[in-house]
# Entry
Amino acid sequence: MVEPQPPAASGRPGLGLTGFVADRARNSPPASSAQELDQQASSELEQAAQILSAGRFAVLTGAGLSTDSGIPDYRGPDAPQRNPLTYQQFVGDESLRRRYWARNQLGWRHLRRAQPNAGHRAIAELEAAGAITGLITQNVDRLHEDAGSVNVVDLHGRFDRVVCLACGTEFSRDQIAVRLDEFNPGFLARAEAGGQIDLAPDADADLDSAELIGSFTVAPCEVCGGMLKPDFVFFGENVPKDRVERSFGMLAEASALLVVGSSLTVMSGLRFPRRAVKAGKPVVIINRGATRGDDLATLKISAGVSESLSRLAARLSKSAGDQVQ
Ligand SMILES: [Zn+2]
# Structure
C-alpha cells in the first residue's frame, strides 16, 4: 500500500515568516465579537474535556501544531504551487536529487532553530499527567520531543537524521551538513544573499537558482559510498511498519482520539480517525479550517491550536490527577 506523505502535490504555502505573521493577523477575530467567540470556545473545550476524560486518549498532530513556532504550514491561501519530490524521483534522478539536497541544506537549519510552543508543551504536560496513551505526529521537526514528550511516533520521519539507502547507517543531519559545507564552499552565503527564502515544514526551501543547484555536490555515505536520504517518508513511500504498529497500539489502548493541527489530507494520517470510529471510539478534532476527517469527528473545534491545547491541558491534567488519587 502506498502511503503518500504530507505535501500533496497541490501546494505547500512556504509562506515564509512574513507571510505567516500576516496569516495569523487575518485569522484574529474582530475585537467586538472576541468575548462571544471566547464563550463559544470555552463551551466547546469543555465538551472536548468531557469526551477525552472518559479514559486515556491518543493524540495525532500535524503541521498546524508548529506554525506558532514559525514553521509555515503546507497549505494556505497564499501557498505557491510546489511539487513534492517522490521517492522514485529522488532515487532515480541525479539532478532532482541534487536539487533536493541543495534546498534541504538551506531549509533544515530553519527547523533546527525552531523552538516548541505552548501547544507542544501542553501535550507534554498531558503525558506527564498520565492522560494520554501516546502521541503520533506527522511533523518531522522534533518539537514534541524538545518540549518533553516521550512516547512519540514520528510517523513521517525526522529532519535531524539521514540514512544510507545501501547499508542502512544513520547519520545526524549536523554531521552531513558539515560534509556538505566542505563539498560546497560558499554555497550558503551565496544562496542567502539572494533574499528571503520561503520554507516548508519538511525542511524544503524555495531555492530555484539553476546555477547554485547545478553546481551543488551531494555527499555519499561515508561507510559504503551509497546514496544518502533525509530520514523522511517521501511521497510514494510507505510509512515503516513498526511505526504504524506502534501508533495502532496507542490507539488500541485509548478510549478516544484527539487530532490537532492536521487537515488529515493524506491517508497516513486519516486512517487513525477512521480506525477509531470503526472501533466505536470518539474523535475530537481541533484545527483551524476544514479537515478531511470532519465527518468522522464526534466534536470539531475550529480554533487556534496552541491556545486550545493549553486550556485543555490545564483542565485535563487536573482531572487525570483526580483519577489517580
Ligand atoms: Zn552506506
Summary: The longest strand covers residues 157-164. The chain has two domains: 39-71+117-156+239-325, 80-113+160-232. The radius of gyration is 20 Å. Residues 31-52 form the longest helix (22 residues).
